[in-house]
Amino acid sequence: ASYGPNPICKGCLSCSKDNGCIRCQHKLFFFLRREGMRQYGECLHSCPSGYYGLRTPDMNRCSRCRIENCDSCFSRDFCTKCKTGFYSHRGRCFRGCPPGFAALEELMECVEGCEVGQWSEWGTCSRNNKTCGFKWGLETRTRQIVKKPAKDTIPCPTIAESRRCKMAMRHCPGGKHRRRPAKTKDKKKKKKNLMERAQKQHSIFLATDKTSP
């Protein structure tokens, strides 16, 4: 209905020139619309956004949803559709789904998600399946899937993760790292050769110096 000096009282059983509909026909819902400081009664087949239809023996009315961020509701305390950007969950509206629930973007609803257990302790630090012979390795921890998601399209969180770690034993007992003494031996041999070469050059210098006039 449009309102002015002569309101149109469509669907009304009784109507006021100043306030619009006062009583509605059977099956229609009475809605009190506020415009500035004034309010007008309307008779509607369905209630507008943010309201739900409350049927009573006296007269059907549009009652406001009492749930925050609700667009339409079944009753004052149960929302059936949330406003844009909010997810519906058990009659309430949320910016993000509660723990244990996952968001269905196409429906903007929260459904039971993938439930996982607690993380295990970090495993042994290793590299190439060895726990020695290297300075750094990786350690891993895992957790189990306790409950699979209601929808196959909802992914489970990671159930294994690894991190860098320092090995407790860098050198393996009896392992390949015993080659190091050989390196020391090579250094000594190289040093000995240098000394011998220096002595030989010194002898040549002395012999040349004696033969010089």
From TrEMBL:
<dbReference type="GO" id="GO:0008201">
    <property type="term" value="F:heparin binding"/>
</dbReference>
<dbReference type="Pfam" id="PF15913">
    <property type="entry name" value="Furin-like_2"/>
</dbReference>
<dbReference type="InterPro" id="IPR009030">
    <property type="entry name" value="Growth_fac_rcpt_cys_sf"/>
</dbReference>
<dbReference type="InterPro" id="IPR036383">
    <property type="entry name" value="TSP1_rpt_sf"/>
</dbReference>
<keyword id="KW-0732">Signal</keyword>
<keyword id="KW-0358">Heparin-binding</keyword>
<protein>
    <recommendedName>
        <fullName>R-spondin-2</fullName>
    </recommendedName>
</protein>
<keyword id="KW-0964">Secreted</keyword>
<keyword id="KW-0879">Wnt signaling pathway</keyword>
<comment type="similarity">
    <text>Belongs to the R-spondin family.</text>
</comment>
<dbReference type="Pfam" id="PF19028">
    <property type="entry name" value="TSP1_spondin"/>
</dbReference>
<dbReference type="InterPro" id="IPR043601">
    <property type="entry name" value="Rspo_Fu-CRD_dom"/>
</dbReference>
<keyword id="KW-0325">Glycoprotein</keyword>
<dbReference type="InterPro" id="IPR006212">
    <property type="entry name" value="Furin_repeat"/>
</dbReference>
<keyword id="KW-0217">Developmental protein</keyword>
<feature type="compositionally biased region" description="Basic residues">
    <location>
        <begin position="172"/>
        <end position="192"/>
    </location>
</feature>
<dbReference type="GO" id="GO:0016055">
    <property type="term" value="P:Wnt signaling pathway"/>
</dbReference>
<dbReference type="GO" id="GO:0005576">
    <property type="term" value="C:extracellular region"/>
</dbReference>
<dbReference type="InterPro" id="IPR000884">
    <property type="entry name" value="TSP1_rpt"/>
</dbReference>
<dbReference type="InterPro" id="IPR051514">
    <property type="entry name" value="R-spondin"/>
</dbReference>
<feature type="domain" description="Spondin-like TSP1">
    <location>
        <begin position="114"/>
        <end position="167"/>
    </location>
</feature>
<feature type="domain" description="R-spondin Fu-CRD">
    <location>
        <begin position="9"/>
        <end position="110"/>
    </location>
</feature>
<keyword id="KW-1015">Disulfide bond</keyword>
<feature type="region of interest" description="Disordered">
    <location>
        <begin position="172"/>
        <end position="213"/>
    </location>
</feature>
<dbReference type="InterPro" id="IPR044004">
    <property type="entry name" value="TSP1_spondin_dom"/>
</dbReference>
<keyword id="KW-0716">Sensory transduction</keyword>
